[in-house]
Amino acid sequence: MPSQADPDSSGTVGVTNDGRGDDVVADLASETDIGGSRAGTRRAHRTLGALIGAVGALGVAASAYLDWFAGQMPTEIPLQRLFDTEVSGTAGTYWTSMAAPLALAGVIGVLGGVLRSRLVITIAGLLGLSTLVLWILLQAIDLSPEDLHASDYEVGLWVCVASLVVLTGGVLLMGSPPVEESPAPDEAADEQHRPSTEG
Hints:
Order of helices and strands: HHHHH
Low-confidence stretches: 9-16
Shape: elongated
Largest sheet: none
Number of helices: 5
Mean pLDDT: 79
């Protein structure tokens, strides 16, 4: 005689299969939610970092209009002063002064903020940093230790330094990975104690 399927047995199998299907759908939905959350966090970090980097670049440009050393602003310091200690006097025009690379760093940084480009903002920071370092180095070479005092460095220099720190923070924030989300304890326990449906 042909064997007849046990209704209770088939019903149990049907329920078990339905349960497995629901678990798979729930797992896929959970993975989709986590992936979307990570992507959203990454976009938020990138946008916030770009904004902070642009603010830092604007600070670098603004420092060109403040006194840096002994009452002198970068708009008055010749650009050649960054490469030759024998250059003296004041700059003939704005674009031949030390303010030009600082202003350019500000423009590039704002452009990088609009584009949310980490590379462009980094270029702006390197331009501002190289201008600052070259000027400090040439000052140290030109002046004797007795004539060089920390108190002679004025607010414009410190604004530039602080702005570069802010810009660097923005760049780092743009590249920071999203925080990994660990599964909840209840979900982990359910996963471990979930009965096997194989066989």
